[in-house]
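Checklist before submission:
- one chain only
- standard amino acids only
- sequence pasted in full

Submission:
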Amino acid sequence: MTSSLPQGQSTSGEIEPDKPPRQVDPWAIAMGIMGGVLLGTGITFAILGFVGVFEEPTPPTIPPAPTLTAPAPTSAPGTFGDSVSVASVAALVAPSTVAVEVNSFLAEGAGSGVVYGNEGYIITNHHVIEGASEVAVVFADGARFPAQIVGSDPVNDIGVLLVDRQDVTPVTIGASELPTIGEPTVAVGNPLALAGGPTVTAGIISALERKLTVTDGNDLYGLVQTDAPIAPGSSGGALVDAAGRLVGITTAIAVSDVGPSDLGFAVPADIAIPVANDLIETGEVRHALMGIQGETAWAQENGAEFPVGILVNDVSPQAAYEEAGGQINDVIVAIDDVTVNTIDALLARLRRLREGDTVPVRILRSDSSTTIDVTMGGLD
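Returned file contents:
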């Protein structure tokens, strides 16, 4: 997001998303202009009030969320070869990737974004625009537009901007299924706030459903891991497959004491797109909450331990899980017809659900298997 490298990884293994550097010394500014401000305050306020500066601006009309659906996969993932190249993917995706310039009272920063739909929406990271007082977007053709913050979601590190430009090139959304480990991928962003358009790097999908704890203490679940180099300032950029279809929004990089470790992470499209739609439609995301406390349950076989589900240690009174008939000491093994064998896998699945969703939850209880239908509560 910024022109400087992120801080190193802590000994606890937490991954830090790049943060905008502090570039302004407020004490130096204050001492230099205090006299002038005090002398001219009364006259300045009178003039600004007369010309209407202090009047509440009329908020712009928010267009509806793009009516985009993820296409079903029609073939195996593409590969880079004679007919498909990184250059062709870059040419396809670069017009859909923007630089995001951020200003606040004490700092300036930069990140990346992805054009979503034809109405001027830009998907980026929450941490790119957090605390911003002014945001601008620079397109691949060099055009710079002021941007309005539509909303942001710290739980999944996704934010949405809106610019008054209709001649945009939206990114193509990938299939609703997660990509395949080993599948080639391309990352497109604007690292280090470099001028001259997006930067393109290539790699593969290294892993899926990763969990990361970032510097603000927030845990991100269900992330896509890639070895395509992602530098500071690329946060909010596009991670695409060999067909140029969006598979994730880049969000974090891993660093060690000696620098970047070639591990990048992205919020998968099947989490990012629904979050963006929620922010556009209502300005918030009503995250699902089951109302349990649990831990990964382990079973032993042939001298080895295997994760088999989530042992429910506590159930909140009148919470969604209790209302559905769930009990302490249940072992949850599947939710919404998806197998979950660890607490991280359960939380990653919950990131894809919303308050009010009713889903089947398969549990083990007293050596028998049963299924209960849980209507999700809301995460405040």
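Reviewer check: Confidence is low (pLDDT under 50) at residues 1-24, 26-60, 68-77.
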